[in-house]
Design brief:
Structural class: mainly alpha
Low-confidence stretches: none
Shape: globular
Keywords: Membrane, Transmembrane, Transmembrane helix
InterPro entries: Teicoplanin_resist-assoc, VanZ-like
Largest sheet: none
Helix content: over 70%
Number of helices: 5
Strand content: under 5%
Mean pLDDT: 93
Pfam families: VanZ (PF04892)
Organism: Microbacterium esteraromaticum
Distance between the termini: 37 Å
Protein name: VanZ-like domain-containing protein
Radius of gyration: 17 Å
Order of helices and strands: HHHHH
Length: about 130
């Protein structure tokens, strides 16, 4: 989780958007794949960025899983607020918050589903 936290902080608080050097690649992708816009790529990237948070929190706090979503929301709000206050080149967005929390939710669902699958497989092997 520590490595993920450092990576998240670097991405979130980098002085300029982390995809600024990928402009040519992003333009090629959006021209090549119909319907895939920059906004959709960014939204999907934010979802993927927070999946590890949901997974990590779900594994670290198995009895407190109900806190995964509020923690993800607070982390995302903190990131967006810091970007608004301290990083002029970054643009905070409600869409980022929605995507981030959705990613954490997906991570939580992955863990719950995997553990349920393991439990069912174990029960099947005992029969």
């Amino acid at each position: 989780m520590a490595v993920y936290g450092v990576a998240l902080a670097l991405i979130a608080f980098w002085p300029e958007p982390v995809d600024s050097s990928a402009g040519a690649l992003l333009r090629w992708i959006t021209k090549t794949v119909p319907g895939l816009t920059y906004a959709r790529i960014e939204f999907g990237s934010n979802i993927l960025l927070f999946v590890p948070l949901g997974i990590g929190l779900a594994l670290l706090m198995p009895r407190l899983r109900y806190l995964v979503m509020p923690i993800a929301l607070l982390v995302s709000l903190g990131i967006e607020a810091a970007q608004a206050i301290f990083l002029a080149a970054r643009t905070p967005s409600i869409y980022d918050i929605v995507a981030n929390v959705s990613g954490a939710c997906l991570g939580l669902v992955i863990i719950v589903a995997a553990q349920e699958w393991r439990k069912r497989a174990r029960n099947q092997s005992l029969k």
